Amino acid sequence: MTDIQDKEKKGYLNEVTVVPVLDDDEYDVAKDVHSGITDGLHRTMEQRHVQMIALAGTLGVGLFLGSGKAVAQAGPCGALLAYGLIGSVVWCIMQCLGEMLCFAPISGGYVHMAERYIHPSAGFAVGWMHWYSSIISLPTEIISATLIIGYWIEMTNARLAGFITLLLFLCASFNFLGARWYAESEFWFALIKICLIIGLIIGGVIVDLGGNPVGERIGFRYWKDPGAFASYPIAGPIGIFTGCFQTLLQAAYSFSGVESIAISCAEVVNPRANMAGCTRKIFWRILFFYFFGIIVVGMLVPSDEPRLLKSTGTAASSPFVIAFTRVGIKGLPSVINAGVLTSAFSAGSSILYGSSRILYGLSLRGQAPKIFSRCLERNGLPLIALACSSSSFFLAYMTLSSGSNTVLNWLSDLTSIATFISWAFICVSFLRFKSACDAQGIIRSESKYIYNRFQPFPAYWALFWCIITIFFNGYKVFLKGRWNTSSFIIAYINIPIVGALFLGHYLFTKRPSFKPASKIDMVSNIPGPEIDFDPNPPTTKIGKFLRWLL
After folding, report:
1. Where do the DSSP E strands lie in 322-380?
2. Residue 419's closest CA among 93, 113, 16, 147?
3. CB–CB of 452/276 below 8 Å?
4. Which of 237, 244, 315, 458 could form a Cys-Cys staple with 337, CB 3.0–4.6 A?
């Protein structure tokens, strides 16, 4: 039995097409759309890796620092309502995403879904939007990490350049060593953050009940004074509404990254069962941490605390630090800073992984240069796609020049709405997927992995809020006396960019119009049941419990 055949039997290769091995220890990958595609990625990740990758991407700065800003803008009750509403949207998106992943667990994630179920131009547009937004975000995560280090060490240009180089090297190393190394590093980074968050929540409850140096029970007093709701950025009832809506946007940013499990789908063993388990568990775990985190912050810190709206990028603006220092507990900032530093570094590593796989998936289907679909045979690493994506890391050195740093921050803000556009494409892809199943006699309810009988209503609910968010995220510039041209461009520039990518690809390739549901390809290049097995199933009760827990 050959090495490739052995890997096929174990489920490490996604397809059964054997490709010739080239002299340079790499093999080329066919770029035909759907039929004839040979995916070079290897299935080496486990369920625990995928869940922790999604957790690592969503639990971090948004909770450590952003939760305080949410309480300041909307009040404790307003923040809970905003996070609850966005939580319902994310649950709906995960239901849509999970069902499509279990049907076709292959490379490209939701970009492939848009290409297959909507139109090739849709996949091209959302794929390149994801890639360019990722490579712009990469250096800003490294810069954020160096700012946090500056909390302990006074930064000179020489030190800043040194720390940037060190962080770039470490972040790239985890990815260039292969998917397994990247997944294992994300697992432990996420575990550190989870332990820290649990400790902060438990500690916050103890402090609230009177376990603090002052010996004072706080309870829910701040829900009465200054109140359960706050107004932002203007006073009065309209300010309460805009404050809640602003927190709604922030909550959506906090949840962004949960869709990243789709990108790793082609590198997970037993993908259908593991993807189904991840999409069921990950949402509730993320919601649990944010829900209780917001409650604790709302109990310990009043919404009119001025430090909540100060954006320092370090633990000084963390609501947990503010809450504990208000009752005389010191020494927490360094602990929080460590968690934020881990989050920033982990985010950079995760963005690099995702951007390289998106570029690889685009190349695989002929929507990017063919060279980016070349993989190393020994570990399935898309080396050239990864090298191309990581080249943007060097933009981090722009922070050594103050003027360039301003430009870099402005470019980073341009990518903020990309998450909502991706979510909208996921919803539309699912609606087309459901229509295709109905038209072609595919019975979705017979799936043993994931099925929601209430569809398509969850998809429409999520799509509605995605559209609202996309078109109203820049509402503040339309308030009286608040017009700002750069803020307007930042809020809405991605809409014409995606439109131009779609239209340009459509006109250049002269692809046919949208297919009717009965003509959508629901067969080609979709792995069969031969990949649906667990190579290392737990055999003990402890092992099964850990599999469920992690």
Report:
1. 375-376
2. 93
3. no
4. 315
Instruction: Say how far apart CA 455 and CA 66 lie, in whole Å.
Output: 33
375-376 and 26-27 beta bridge pairing: antiparallel
- Token pair recorded at residue 63: 């909770």
Q: What pTM, to 2 d.p., does this model score? A: 0.85
Residue 58 tokens, joined:
């969503």
In three-state secondary structure terms, 228 is coil
C-alpha 535/C-alpha 60 separation (Å) is 32
Q: Render 100-169 in DSSP notation, one character per residue.
A: HHHH---TTHHHHHIIIII-HHHHHHHHHHHHHHHHHHHHHHHHHHHHHHTTTS---HHHHHHHHHHHHH
pLDDT digits (tens, 9 = 90+) for 188-242: 888 888 888 888 889 889 988 888 787 788 888 888 888 888 888 788 888 888 8
Percent of the chain topping pLDDT 90: 13
Q: Which of 113, 163, 118, 169 is nearest to 143 (CA)?
A: 163
Q: Cα(436)–Cα(193) distance, rounded to whole angstroms? A: 41
Give the pair of three-digit tokens for residue 452: 């929601």
Residue bearing tokens 């520039």: 493
Bigger pLDDT: 147 vs 373: 373
Q: Do 433 and 100 touch, CB atoms closer than 8 A?
A: yes
User: How many residues would you count in the chain?
Assistant: 550
Could you name the CATH architecture of 43-476+513-549?
Up-down Bundle (1.20)
Chain-centre distance for alpha carbon 230: 29
Give the span between the Cα atoms of 102 and 448, in whole angstroms. Answer: 10
Strand partners, 13: 42
**Nearest Cα residue to 333 out of 346, 319, 347:** 319
Query: What ranges do the domains of the chain cover?
Result: 43-476+513-549
26 pairs with which residues across the strands? 376
> Residue 320 above 60 pLDDT?
yes
Closest CA to 506 of 175, 149, 122, 231: 122
SS3 72: helix
Tally of CB atoms within 10 A around 400: 13
Angle between helices 319-326 and 332-364 (to 10 degrees): 170
What is the C-alpha R_g of the chain? Answer: 23
State the DSSP code for 258: G
| Whole-angstrom distance, CA of residue 181 vs CA of residue 81 | 38
pLDDT in tens, 17-65: 333 333 333 333 333 344 445 567 788 888 788 877 777 767 766 777 7
Within 10 A of 532 (CB to CB), how many other CB atoms are there? Answer: 17
| Contact (CB, 8 A) for 356 and 389 | yes
What pLDDT does 20 receive?
32
Extract the tokens encoding 535. Answer: 């190579």
* Pure H helices in 220-326: 221-222, 237-255, 271-300, 319-326
> 349 pLDDT exceeds 50?
yes
CB 142 within 8 A of CB 396: yes
